[in-house]
Amino acid sequence: MLALLHTSPVHVPVFDALRDAHHPGLALRHTVDASLLDRARAEGPEAVGGAVGAAVRAAVDDGARAVLCTCSTLGAVAERVAAGVPVLRVDRPMAAAAAAMGRRIVVVAALPSTVEPTAELVREEAGRRTPRISALLVDGAWALFEAGDRDGYLDAVAAAVDGVRDADAIVLAQASMAGATARTRTAVPVLSSPRPGLAAAAAAAGADRHPGRHPGE
Predict the structure, then answer these.
(1) 72 with 90: CB under 8 angstroms?
(2) pLDDT digits (tens, 9 = 90+) for 138-172
(3) What's the rounded Cα separation, in Å, for the pair 196 and 199?
(4) Which pTM was predicted?
(5) Cα separations (Å) of 118 from 94, 122, 141, 169?
(6) Secondary structure of residue 131 in the 3-state scheme
(7) Pairwise CA distance, residues 79 & 53, whole Å
(8) Rg of the chain over CA atoms, in angstroms?
(9) Which residue stretches of the chain are H helix?
(10) Which pLDDT tens digit goes with each residue over 24-80?
(11) Cβ 119 vs Cβ 100: under 8 Å
């Protein structure tokens, strides 16, 4: 069983659909706690380290063989939890892919709190390659997300992405942005985290020897 720690309920159907399409048979256990992100935004991610650790260990006690944190703001905090099983952040595979694509990387975010954690993760994955990372905060997008206007939110993100110039890769800092990739027209690669993040976590849980492969392929 793979446990997922979310800070919004909108992620549950997204990851369930990815599981059904690419990892059939994988059991998922979802924990949603929006207060973790609220507090992290107000006080910093380290302020919720204890609460994140408690949520992770509760999932392990419930039988999880790996835990995936889907919140970019809390990813680094979650990775440091010692739980006896792999604890992963959803955006690490995306960051690794972006770091391999070139030196000019744009991080697109709807929340200021996700910008630096994502940029730092890309730098970490790039190693000695020293990418040039710039940030683009989509004004007003988070208000649309909080109001439940998914289409408005994704359209705002897509419009911001299409305005990016001089980039080798564009990184969508939040898992909730993934749906915007289908709405963009840019020729620059646009990377999102849910699919590669779930594939890595499924492999870590020992539940998928061939992430992303359909039965019979």
Answers:
(1) yes
(2) 999 999 999 999 999 999 999 999 999 999 999 99
(3) 5
(4) 0.91
(5) 10, 6, 18, 14
(6) coil
(7) 10
(8) 16
(9) 11-22, 34-43, 49-61, 75-79, 92-99, 112-126, 141-146, 150-162, 194-204
(10) 999 999 999 999 999 999 999 999 999 999 999 999 999 999 999 999 999 999 999
(11) no
